[in-house]
């Protein structure tokens, strides 16, 4: 299982370092149109739509969406009803499960729980 993500301030990048058992791919603003041809989970932080557009650019590239097994959100609970809304929107638009979420770069509990979930679908 591949782990695809983007990260603007480094939290998700830091989280993904704990998932070293899985190959990862970081999507960047310069070139989000990367084609993957293997199953992956997408980890997305929440921001305003102008900056998260790259997630949709990536998902709509080639057959990427069909390989997506689920989305995991990173966010901040202070955003209340907007908590992890980017991941929620991705899951809705591409009809894939919202697997889990964590705040900032995740706690050790978040890491263990999410590893188990990825293992379960891998
Ligand atoms: C300008 C800005 C807007 C944000 N908007 C949201 C939001 O709407 N919902 C949410 O849950 N978190 C929001 N966050 C929190 C980030 O999603 C969270 O800190 C995340 O861990 C950032 O991941 P990154 O460092 O990998 O980019 C926002 C943070 C910033 C700086």
UniProtKB/TrEMBL annotation:
InterPro entries registered for this protein in UniProt: Flavoprotein-like_sf, RNR_NrdI
Family annotation (Pfam families): Flavodoxin_NdrI (PF07972)
GO molecular function, one term: FMN binding
SUPFAM superfamilies membership: Flavoproteins (SSF52218)
Protein name: Class Ib ribonucleoside-diphosphate reductase assembly flavoprotein NrdI
